[in-house]
Write a structure and sequence with these properties.
Elements (H helix, E strand, L loop, with lengths): L1 E6 L5 H7 L2 E5 L3 E5 L3 H5 L4 E4 L14 H15 L21
Antiparallel strand pairs: 1-3, 1-4, 2-3
Length: about 100
């Protein structure tokens, strides 16, 4: 499981990178890390950590386009994680299922 990390102050990026491997980075202030580091990262001032299933994440103040894209992608991904999808678990040739 992943966690979204928002750096309210981009100066904390080197500290974050020293504490947790960054899986994805959107600009200077939006990161995806393994959720196992969430509690450690929450102790750092100016850092907001969001786990899947929590409230929708907000971008940092004055976000760049890429930072906003990262937060929007996170929100889309995590809001749809528990939604059932038509045909989930069925073979594409299952009776009554029309593949996309």
């Amino acid at each position: 499981m992943d966690a979204l990390v928002i750096l309210l102050n981009g100066k904390t990026l080197p500290l974050i990178e020293s504490l947790a491997p960054v899986r994805q980075q959107y600009g200077e202030r939006v990161l995806i890390v393994s959720a196992e580091y969430a509690d450690t990262l929450r102790t750092i001032a100016d850092v907001v950590v969001t786990l899947p299933g929590n409230a929708l994440a907000e971008p940092p103040p004055n976000p760049s386009d890429i930072e906003r894209l990262g937060v929007d992608a996170w929100n889309a991904r995590t809001s749809s994680e528990n939604k059932p999808r038509t045909g989930d678990g069925l073979a594409w040739d299952a009776s009554g299922f029309d593949a996309p």
